[in-house]
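Quick review question:
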């Protein structure tokens, strides 16, 4: 059986874009801050100042990186091999999701028991994370967890990412028809999703659905994918377009900042009237436009200045972005531990700084560790100066493992 050959435009291997790793690293650090319970530093994350936030950064960059990782493989090895590689990545993400759930569940169980003996008014972290239904009914819980029909709110990004990855083979086939066919199909899928609103079940005991609808979020994922692979061209720097984007972003700040908007009736009415544009589950249109405007501003400002991202001070952030899956999973675990530390030490400017900065440092350390192990240094031949001298072990007395029956001296 012959393989379908993908000949889509722009699938030749390209050097990794440092902007991708930098902004994805920033997104990972913001995601950590956003998930530490009652973290005062959350007041300064992008979600408070515009419709889009770190989630859009993560999903867009993941789509962009997926094209870099898999696009050339489809071109060079054909559809079946490319799809097989996607299947392997889906397998990895699926088990990463399960491992993260089990680890976080273990951490909060231990934390609930330990904190009960340390503080006067302990928090039940199992209840706080809404995992008590799973603890009370592990039979349905395990079945739902394994089949992705149980997706608690704290654990909802990786299942969405898994579905988006599974859509790549279809998108690659569409790209073989015409360069604009993939993004047109994804845009129609987003529009149909807004009209018909299909839902994926998230709990077996209620009608709650996935918090991140993958068929809506496909729009931003495959926008990044299509730009990276060359099917979409980004607009060139333009003064009018740049300042239009700036005005749009600035105008949305007070409308998005609830502490400001709640004080003005017209702002509250605006949010009610255009709430579908802010909606996170169905990826509202204002979120998309806001992210595109921010991305255009950043790309324009960095045009010709990309080398500044190679500054040594930014290397830790870039390394975090290069190891996004590992740092994301770690951030979700560390965020719960950070919340427990704040509960024990109390919440003050000093403890907020301690938890957040320690979390950043640990994520950087994890990123560097993952990069080290991915290089598999043990496979490289050891240099003469580094070879360890191994002395033969002294001869054992009595019976040897080889059945030596000589008596001991």
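Suggested answer, residue by residue:
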């Amino acid at each position: 059986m012959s393989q379908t050959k993908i000949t889509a435009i722009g699938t030749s291997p390209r050097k990794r874009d440092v902007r991708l790793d930098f902004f994805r690293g920033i997104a990972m650090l913001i995601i950590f801050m956003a998930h530490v319970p009652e973290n005062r530093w959350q007041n300064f994350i992008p979600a408070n100042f515009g419709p889009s936030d770190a989630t859009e950064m993560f999903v867009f960059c993941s789509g962009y990186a997926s094209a870099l990782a898999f696009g050339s493989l489809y071109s060079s090895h054909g559809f079946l091999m490319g799809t097989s590689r996607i299947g392997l990545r889906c397998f990895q993400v699926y088990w990463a999701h399960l491992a993260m759930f089990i680890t976080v569940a273990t951490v909060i169980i231990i934390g609930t028991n330990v904190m009960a003996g340390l503080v006067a008014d302990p928090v039940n972290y199992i209840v706080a994370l809404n995992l008590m239904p799973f603890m009370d009914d592990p039979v349905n819980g395990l079945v739902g967890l394994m089949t992705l029909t149980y997706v608690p709110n704290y654990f909802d990004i990786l299942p969405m990412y898994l579905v988006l990855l599974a859509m790549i083979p279809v998108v690659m086939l569409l790209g073989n028809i015409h360069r604009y066919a993939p993004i047109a199909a994804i845009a129609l899928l987003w529009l149909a999703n807004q009209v018909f609103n299909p839902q994926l079940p998230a709990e077996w005991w209620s009608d709650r659905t996935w918090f991140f609808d993958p068929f809506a979020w496909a729009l931003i994922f495959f926008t990044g994918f299509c730009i990276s692979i060359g099917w979409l061209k980004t607009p060139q720097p333009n003064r009018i377009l740049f300042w239009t984007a700036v005005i749009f972003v600035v105008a949305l700040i007070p409308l998005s900042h609830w502490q400001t908007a709640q004080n003005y009736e017209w702002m509250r009415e605006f949010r009610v009237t255009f709430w579908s544009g802010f909606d996170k589950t169905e990826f509202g249109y204002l979120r998309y436009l806001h992210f595109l405007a921010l991305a255009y501003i950043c790309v324009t400002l960095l045009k010709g200045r990309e080398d500044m991202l190679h500054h040594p001070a930014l290397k830790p952030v870039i390394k975090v972005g290069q190891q996004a899956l590992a740092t994301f999973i770690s951030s979700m675990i560390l965020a719960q531990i950070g919340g427990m530390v704040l509960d024990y030490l109390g919440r003050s400017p000093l403890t907020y700084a301690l938890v957040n900065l320690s979390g950043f440092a640990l994520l950087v350390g994890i990123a560097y560790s993952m990069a080290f192990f991915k290089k598999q240094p043990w496979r490289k031949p050891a240099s003469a100066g580094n070879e360890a001298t191994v002395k033969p072990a002294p001869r054992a007395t009595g019976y040897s493992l080889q059945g030596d029956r000589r008596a001991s001296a």
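Why it works: The two ends are 70 Å apart (CA to CA). Residues 1-13, 396-409 have pLDDT under 50 and may be disordered.
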